[in-house]
Each structure stands twice: as C-alpha cells, then as structure tokens.
Structure prediction request, 204 residues.
Amino acid sequence: MTKIKICGNTRADDVELAVELGADLLGFIFTHSKRQVRVDEIRDVIAQVPAGVERVGVFIDEPTEQIGEVARACGLTALQVYRPLTENDRALGLLLLPAFRVQAGEDLITIPLEQGDHPLFDTWVPDSVGGTGRAWAWPQAREVARRYPLVVSGGLTADNVDGAVRELHPWAVDVCSGVEAEPGRKDHAKLRAFVEAVRRVDRS
Prediction:
C-alpha cells in the first residue's frame, strides 16, 4: 500500500478528516510559507493525531536546535527539511524525509542519501519551496525509487496521482495544494478523492 502524506495542515477539522480517511503522514509547516503554523497554535491539534500516524515537521534551512525545540514541543515524529541533513539532525531520532527540488534533466542518483532516509522529491520552482502545484518528470527518479523509500511530491492531484504511483511505486505520495480550497484550508471533497485515487491504483 502506498502511504499518503497530507501536508500544509493548519486546521483541526482538516486533520481530523485526514486521519479518518487513513492518511499515514501529516505535515505541518513551521517555516516561511502561506501555510506556516506556530507552535502555540498547532500544538493541541497535533496532540490529537493518533499513534501510528507520522507527525511531520516541515522546515527549509532552520538550525537543528530550533527544529529540535519545535519537535519536542509538538511531539513530532518525522522531519522534512530542504537543506542538507547534518549529523545533529540525524541525532534527533526522527524519521527523516530529506527534501529535494527536482530540476528538468537533473541526475537524481547523485544526490547524497544515507540508509534509512526517505527522500522527498518536490518540484523546483524559482523563489518557491513546496506547495507550487507543479509536477516534475517522474521517470527521472526511477533509479532512486529502486534504492530508497521515495516520497513523490509536487503537483499531485486525484487526477494524476495514479501516474506517479504506476511510474515509481513510491513509498509515499505527498499532497498539499492539490487538495486545498485555499492555502492552509483543505477542500474535503478533493481530499477524499485524492485518498480514494491512491487506494484505487493500489488495488489495481
């Protein structure tokens, strides 16, 4: 079964529905974004996420000390970061989703990864990190997907996620803007349709 990550969560009712639908990972953005959340406003929401659902903190280039403080305050279980991971990051003891923005023609097999990493491939867009609504060329990641538990992100919707799953057989798919009514607020019909689309291709 392909795992499903719902990212950019800011509201309790969206989180509740994602859990009800069987999401495996929930992402909360603690960095510069239209979907950024603060510890004091999201801590109680995250506390309601049941055990077994990964609580992913999303960061760009924040130092390990800051990430660790947020992780402890919110009970995070996983880390998604858009900069090279350090040994201090790895020492936090979280599930690691090192994030990379894929450019056309890039040789992804040269990206430095370690055993146990779950690389997340997102779309490269100038002056934007995540939530772009744009997909990248999935065949570029075939070799990485054979070697690592890959997370496919960037431009996924209920209409195209089956293509990503069939192409790469990833460990997980990650959606944000593809299930939103507006940044930070989910469209519940789109969220249901996305989860069903993933489960449908898994069954086939």
Summary: The mean pLDDT is 94. The first strand starts at residue 3 and ends at 6.
